[in-house]
Amino acid sequence: MSRIGKKPVEIPSGVTVSLNGTDLTVKGPKGELAMSFVPEVTVKHEDNSITVLPVNDTKRARSMWGMQRTMVSNLMTGVTQGYSRKLEINGVGYRAAMKGANLGLQLGFSHDVEFPVPQGIKIETPDQTTIIVSGIDKQLVGETAAKIREYRKPEPYKGKGIKYEGEYIFRKEGKKK
């Protein structure tokens, strides 16, 4: 039994939910999100909550039960509060700045890296070594932050590169004489 799946998802005030078969649309103050449910679960919209239940007792149905409930919860949080990831840049001469609709990154390459900002994502650079990726879709925010980090992952010897805020970089000792 899924402990997460058993809990109903409360609908916050100011959020409207429409359920058409397996399609769920959520509208809130920050925007609108939609998702489709897998056939292994059923969804009920009662009073001020949404309940997700497995169709049968197969392994796939039980695993989808908790995941689909969490995805509904992420939709509710996204349209009310939104999500954000903070990235930090470490390294001499490494910096980031917004250049129009693109994010310009100087990461020690022979050229500057231009990252086009996806639709539905907002990127801020409060200073040259900090990047804040925010939006209402949790999956898209995480994917965008991962793509930016991928340009120059933190290396273990000096710790240079792009890392998530609070990420611990396992450091290695260099060559010995």
TrEMBL record:
Q: Which InterPro entries match?
A: Ribosomal_uL6-like, Ribosomal_uL6-like_a/b-dom_sf, Ribosomal_uL6_a/b-dom, Ribosomal_uL6_bac-type, Ribosomal_uL6_CS
This protein's UniProt keywords: Ribonucleoprotein, Ribosomal protein, RNA-binding, rRNA-binding
* The organism's place on the tree of life at top rank: Bacteria
Q: Would the keyword Isomerase turn up in this protein's UniProt record? A: no
Domain Large ribosomal subunit protein uL6 alpha-beta, which positions?
11-82, 91-164
Pfam families with a match to the protein in the record: Ribosomal_L6 (PF00347)
Q: Name one GO biological process term.
A: cytoplasmic translation
User: Which GO MF terms are attached to this record?
Assistant: rRNA binding; structural constituent of ribosome
Annotated Gene Ontology cellular components are:
cytosolic large ribosomal subunit
Q: Does the keyword Ribonucleoprotein apply?
A: yes
What is the protein's known function? This protein binds to the 23S rRNA, and is important in its secondary structure. It is located near the subunit interface in the base of the L7/L12 stalk, and near the tRNA binding site of the peptidyltransferase center.
Q: Subunit structure, per the record?
A: Part of the 50S ribosomal subunit.
**Record family assignment:** Belongs to the universal ribosomal protein uL6 family.
Protein name as catalogued: Large ribosomal subunit protein uL6
Biological source species: Gimibacter soli
